[in-house]
Amino acid sequence: VQLVESGGGLVQPGESLRLSCAAFGSIFGSGAVGWARQVPGKGLEWVSAIYRDSSTYYADSVKGRFTISRDNAKNTIYLQMNSLKPEDAAVYYCATGDPYRKDFGSWGQGTQVTVSS
Q1: Is the dihedral of CA 57, 113, 30, 52 positive or negative?
Q2: How far apart are CA 57 and CA 54, in angstroms?
Q3: Cα 82 to Cα 16, 18, 56, 70, 74, distances in angstroms
Q4: Contact 35, 92 (CB under 8 A)
Q5: What is the mean pLDDT of residues 94-107?
Q6: Strand (E) positions, the chain?
Q7: Phi, psi of 94 (to 5 degrees)
Q8: Contacts of 117 (CB under 8 A, 6+ apart)
Q9: Which contacts qualify for 43-48: CB closer than 8 Å, 24 or more apart?
Q10: Could you tell me the pLDDT band of residue 1, with boundaries at 50, 70 and 90?
Q11: Is residue 44 a contact partner of residue 36, using CB atoms and an 8 Å limit?
Q12: What pLDDT does residue 35 have?
């Protein structure tokens, strides 16, 4: 599966961004599809994911602020990020895998999110 992210950028604390992930190929397999992020010097961590049955996963740090959704007709996954904080700054990757097992299948090229005043 090929995953292509877009929508990153520079925002101030408290502002919002929406990330998009266009998927080419089967995206669910035996797990989920969603968003992970990475900051320099650290590994990839799951932020949010959506399963085939539409159940969702959110990391504790983003619950209540981020919302994942999908458009099946467009085979596209979205991440609406509200009330962004400086600690949300990272490279965000669209990925397949299983957040509860902390494993990854495929991921895209990433999109940079910078939160700074």
Answers
A1: positive
A2: 10
A3: 4, 9, 17, 17, 23
A4: yes
A5: 93
A6: 2-6, 9-11, 17-24, 32-38, 45-51, 56-58, 66-71, 76-81, 90-98, 103-107, 111-115
A7: -80, 135
A8: 12, 13
A9: 44/93, 44/95, 44/104, 44/107, 46/95, 46/97, 46/99, 46/102, 47/79, 47/92, 48/79, 48/99
A10: confident
A11: yes
A12: 98
Tokens representing 55 are 């159940």
Tokens of 23: 């998927």
How far, rounded to the nearest angstrom, does the alpha carbon of residue 80 sit from its chain's CA centroid? Answer: 9
Tokens at residue 85, please?
Answer: 């904080």
Residues, the chain:
117
Q: Which tens digit of pLDDT belongs to each residue from 47-93?
A: 999 999 999 999 999 999 999 999 989 999 999 999 999 999 999 99
